[in-house]
């Protein structure tokens, strides 16, 4: 099958209702081009493919009808048919989505179990939190860690505004879980953080005002993320609410998530979190069926594990239990 005919079928037709590709033939999947979804905006996905000369080309795409309800998110590895030249006004189609290695998921809130995937295949979840102004939102922090562990991402705390206060209390809070952390301020070197980000795909999350945009603009100087300072000088804000992937000059990519201010966790169980900690997961094989692994779960094997080892184990278990307790829906039986 010739993919040329296919390409013609997916040309954008300007219409009030948007464009609809009409295909009478099945797409030539064997000629589909692999690519990475770098942005999603109202049904249009920007997919980065390799151009004829090896340089990356960004192609505007939509989902092929045959994908059914399968959503496409930033970070998805996909295959694309149609016009992949990157020409303006061209529209290619995503025909396959690769299985996701990791997935950062959220629910609208803790009672709505409808899962939404925020980002696929990211290696690292960078939780940006200021040590002051605003004070750290501990509940949000815990929830981010839970979402990371449950989704298969390694968490990294980026503790900003260390010119205002010490990051030590936060470092202490998560020491038992051995969460990696990087102190940061506007004036501080980016080297430590860049070391963590190198050659990885990282997602940045943070609540309003923590300095995430300031950080992204330093990491990716041509990103132009709107910062709080802009509004102060009256220029208005042009904060994009869409998730977008940005290349780091030194290698690796960061995905900014400006619209994400909360992470509902109705889809997460204590076992999902437990699985991220090898030692705890191993000890929990002796737990009763459906054990919730909290301090009030009768016969939870984690108690015996903690009691039978060095004090660090008790610290670790307490940290783990604080984490799962922070998630409203989690409890015995999950
Ligand atoms: N003291 C101090 N202030 C900072 C630092 N980094 C950023 N700020 C200030 O904190 C405020 C918020 O910074 P932003 O980068 O806009 O924060 P944000 O997390 O992107 O917040 P939104 O724009 O609401 O998404 C601004 O006034 C920044 O100038 C820092 O290291 N130290
Ligand atoms: Zn247990």
Automatic annotation (TrEMBL):
Keyword Cytoplasm: yes
Residue ranges constituting the CP-type G domain according to the UniProt record: 111-263
Classification via InterPro entries: G_CP_dom, P-loop_NTPase, Ribosome_biogen_GTPase_RsgA, RsgA_GTPase_dom
Enzyme class, spelled out: hydrolase
Binding-site residues, Zn(2+): 287, 291, 293, 300
Pfam families: RsgA_GTPase
Record domain EngC GTPase: where: 120-261
Comp. bias regions, Basic residues: 13-26
Cofactors demanded by this protein: Zn(2+)
Listed GO MF terms: GTP binding; GTPase activity; metal ion binding; rRNA binding
UniProt KW keywords: Cytoplasm, GTP-binding, Hydrolase, Metal-binding, Nucleotide-binding, Ribosome biogenesis, RNA-binding, rRNA-binding, Zinc
CDD domains, per the entry: YjeQ_EngC
Broad class of the protein's primary localization: cytoplasm
GO (cellular component) term, any one: cytoplasm
GO biological process: ribosomal small subunit biogenesis
PANTHER family: SMALL RIBOSOMAL SUBUNIT BIOGENESIS GTPASE RSGA, SMALL RIBOSOMAL SUBUNIT BIOGENESIS GTPASE RSGA 1, MITOCHONDRIAL-RELATED
Function: One of several proteins that assist in the late maturation steps of the functional core of the 30S ribosomal subunit. Helps release RbfA from mature subunits. May play a role in the assembly of ribosomal proteins into the subunit. Circularly permuted GTPase that catalyzes slow GTP hydrolysis, GTPase activity is stimulated by the 30S ribosomal subunit.
Assembly and binders: Monomer. Associates with 30S ribosomal subunit, binds 16S rRNA.
NCBIfam families in the cross-refs: ribosome small subunit-dependent GTPase A
Listed name of the protein: Small ribosomal subunit biogenesis GTPase RsgA
Source species: Modestobacter italicus (strain DSM 44449 / CECT 9708 / BC 501)
